[in-house]
## 1
Amino acid sequence: MARRLLTLATFNVNGIGARLPHLLAWLAREKPDVVALQELKALDAAFPVAELEAAGYGALWQGQRSWNGVALLGRGVVPVESRRGLPGDAKDTQSRYLEAAVHGVLVAAIYAPNGNPQPGPKFDYKLRWMQRLARHARTLAGQPVPVALLGDFNVVPTDADIYDPKGWRRDALLQPEAREAYRDLLAQGWTDALHQVHGDAPVFTFWDYFRQHAERDRGLRIDHLLLNPVLAATLKDAGVHRWVRLQEKASDHAPTWARVAAPARR
DNA sequence: ATGGCTGGCGACGCCAGA
């Protein structure tokens, strides 16, 4: 018997207030089952829960004034929260991690620090945050249930994942330490869904607002879907909904997705 | 080597993004 498929997606909206029309249009057209959002740039009270409910999505969110902010959406269901915030630093108040069970998959919404300028305190924070992520992700990778880390990792994994590696070589997103942190994650057993499906063919998820880079497909791959071995075994396809990035007043990121088998009900 | 564009904040210019 063929099993139902599930579409997992991650979308850095760059302001939920400014991007709600784009988000709703994308949900209506692509109907993803599980969605991680980043960069809400809004307080909890400003999260558009009613509009999302009307669109058929249950939501869980962790906002913050002006910056950061993550959320999880479930098509037809409210995600069941398992963790709010990354462990390892009680003084870190930035809203960058939210974890819940959605449609039988344990999913984390991740917004890793940008880290620019580097070197400097922001880059140090980026690396410390990635270490904390690795420590927690290790406890999730080997779980005998499907687990996915969905988010903006703010790491360009290799020079094949950017249109101009030379022009960006000093950027925090390309630094060897950042790339090593990402490789360390993968070494725990996570599968990078987009890379698994497309290999080294360039598939970008972010295009900056300058020089018509979106139209010219001069982008970076920084939004990633990492699947633990249980879930990776059911991976069917992965891609990027670039049409969203080509809309008027779009986010600088596009929704990135992976199709997997829906876990059997237990 | 730099600046280019955008959202949020809060009131015109600044910070942060990547």
## 2
Amino acid sequence: MKHRIAEILTGGVAVGARVTVEGWIRTRRASKAGLSFLAVHDGSCFDALQVVAPAELPGYAEVVLHVVTGCAVRVTGEVVASQGKGQPVEVRAEAIEVVGWVDDPETYPMQPKRHTMEYLREVAHLRPRTNVIGAVTRVRHTLAMAVHRFFHERGFVWIHTPIITASDAEGAGQMFRVSTLDAANPPRTAGGAVDWNQDFFGKEAHLTVSGQLNVETYCMAMSRVYTFGPTFRAENSNTRRHLAEFWMIEPEIAFADLADDAQLAEDFLKAIFTTLLDERRDDLAFFAKHVDPGCQARLAGLVESRFERMEYGDAVRTLERSGKRFEFPVRWGMDLQAEHERYLTEEVVKGPIAVVNYPKEIKAFYMRLNDDGKTVAAMDVLAPGIGELIGGSQREERLDVLDARLDELGLDKQTYGWYRDLRRYGTVPHAGFGLGFERAIQYATGIENIRDVIPFPRAPRQADF
RNA sequence: UCCGGAGUAGCUCAGUGGUAGAGCAGGCGGCUGUUAACCGCCGGGUCGGGGGUUCGAAACCCUCCUCCGGAGCCA
């Protein structure tokens, strides 16, 4: 009977049972006169299964002794208590079939040793076979499922907001153009400009930079909604925290204010990380041992503590009084720099912190103006080592105030016609936030470069595979 | 985009002007239960590309490419 390796290693299969496992060879340790040990992994858990192949096995010399790292095998044998240390049970093979050989072992890119993350990125099609990327992949999946479970259990509805958008003024950064026109020879108007009217959508179109504006419409009907999908930014940003294509989670809640929003963010992060701690102990133990010794304690600490809340004004005062010399000066009205965020999270609070009520000048048009007329009900959740993990706000639900903001910023009211309609027909206070999914994975695992927590990273000059 | 660092064997790296090295991986041999096994032998190089200086360049100079870290932008 076929079994996943996770079942066997967690005691789900009785000692003495006959099993068949299918997977890939991680290492082979051979003893010419005696027997061979094969470490087989199938992705179902962190640990590989130890398969013991006795020399009497049919085809031992021809097959088993030539198996190398990367070979795909099918093993049938008996589950036995292990004589060695390092695993409770192993499989004593009665038959080993090589399903797929490694053509040229000398050039097979994966070796049973530690590779650099930079090198693994160059072989993105084979890196999921490694310990570290395998662990990241399971963590990513577990967190994704936890996200949906969290929202589903609280009555949120998952909204599939569009990937392609024709409203190019969302203001969240550079966008990728979507077009079917011949780039080398586009149709022109009489005036010589590119005639977008002849393009597929009859107007300029781009890949979305956020599902928020669209999801707000469903929030005004379903009350509690969220998006979870890919997002695209054409910024030429070359850092370990940015991707051109990444996944974002954006809940939106009706009849809610900024305090509700911050509470949701806190409950949400605690819930998904609690799930991760429960379900992926094996992978987290690996990250703690080889990547980031503090990752488990950091997660455990987060789920137990209450998030610190801090007014933007207080944050600025704290920084001013710190006596610390910052490269960029701190002054009310300026956005917090990376070095400021690091100081607040890593030295003052030593944990996640929600900074609220920022000056309106440095935030988006849709954020709700506070009574002081100077700040908006915005919120950034900052995390040590990551920076901004969540950005959110209460939305401006008053049409006259929203229009005044659009005018102030010189934005075209017609472009936002349907968005303004929401304020004309049954408007209610509402709020939401955006979480960069990859940043959450980075936070959980301690993986430093965001390109290593997504299967196929897209970044400037990087779209291979 | 700006600043800094790096590019030498399949991988990780050493090599500061005088004929290209190590460990791991691979092949062969040895070893009765190993844990990234161990021991011996062998094969393996456009020193990122181009140009220059020099009797002689992996090394020094110019230039381009790629990657990494930091900053900005942000999630």
